[in-house]
Specification:
alpha+beta, five-stranded mixed beta sheet, four-stranded antiparallel beta sheet, 11 strands
């Protein structure tokens, strides 16, 4: 029973580590971030934390084909008629309407590998897609409002400039997910081993190698590995003979 529980714990730790490793598709430290993305492909960090921090948009009066827009990277702003928490705002000439909130902003890549940030509005009806284009030949970072796509609920902005180019940060010697998983598994095994030894020593009076918890199981592992290897080799070598009738 103890052996089964131990194996179950190991499986849970490994599966959880794999799940964490594959959860973040775009940014190493999480795709939900309003300001910064450390790209999983190792190309560097994109930091858009240069937006206004005074509740006003850095980019305003952006003329689109249909409406006028405002956008502020990283920090939320408010409209003059009381819409708060905004990343992007539209105005159709009759009034303002939110097309994206900073809260929940997610970094993504499309099928071609192009990077964009997706913002959802407070009512979850409208979205804004901000396409990011690295252009280190420019001296400023600019936003162009493209209007809605063919869904009529997603507003598209093109954000380009040198700030959208990944910057390779110096190694900070942080542990990788694999290292964390290995340390976690080793710690669990150590606790299991020490607890088992103490239990067998105090409760059963075991000595020597008999102190090892589930000794028979662990001593059988080399043999099981050997048998498994032999099975695989023999399966690969096995070729069924043709079944011919005698003449």
């Amino acid at each position: 029973m103890v052996t089964t529980d131990l194996l179950f714990c190991f499986i849970i730790v490994i599966v959880s580590s794999i799940k964490i490793a594959y959860t973040h598709k775009t940014c190493r430290h999480g795709d939900i971030d309003t300001c910064r993305c450390d790209l999983v492909n190792g190309s560097g960090v994109i930091d858009i934390s240069f937006g206004n921090q005074d509740e006003t948009p850095l980019y305003k009066d952006l003329k689109g084909p249909d409406n006028t827009y405002a956008y502020n990277p990283c920090y939320a702003f408010s409209s003059d008629d009381g819409i708060t928490g905004l990343a992007a705002l539209g105005n159709d000439g009759y009034g303002n309407f939110g097309v994206g909130q900073q809260k929940g902003a997610s970094w993504n890549t499309d099928e071609s590998g192009s990077l964009f940030i997706l913002y959802s509005s407070g009512d979850k009806y409208f979205n804004s897609t901000v396409n990011l284009f690295c252009d280190d030949q420019k001296t400023s970072n600019d936003v162009i409002a493209q209007g809605t796509d063919n869904t009529y609920t997603n507003y598209v902005f093109d954000f380009s400039g040198p700030a959208l180019c990944p910057i390779v940060a110096p190694e900070d010697n942080k542990l990788s997910i694999g290292s964390i998983s290995l340390i976690s598994i080793s710690a669990i095994f150590f606790v299991y081993l020490v607890s088992g030894i103490i239990y067998k020593k105090t409760r059963t009076g075991a000595t020597g190698t008999d102190l090892i918890p589930n000794k028979n199981f662990w001593s059988s592992i080399p043999g099981l590995i050997k048998d498994g290897a032999k099975f695989l080799v023999n399966r690969c070598k096995y070729r069924p003979e043709a079944d011919y009738d005698n003449i």
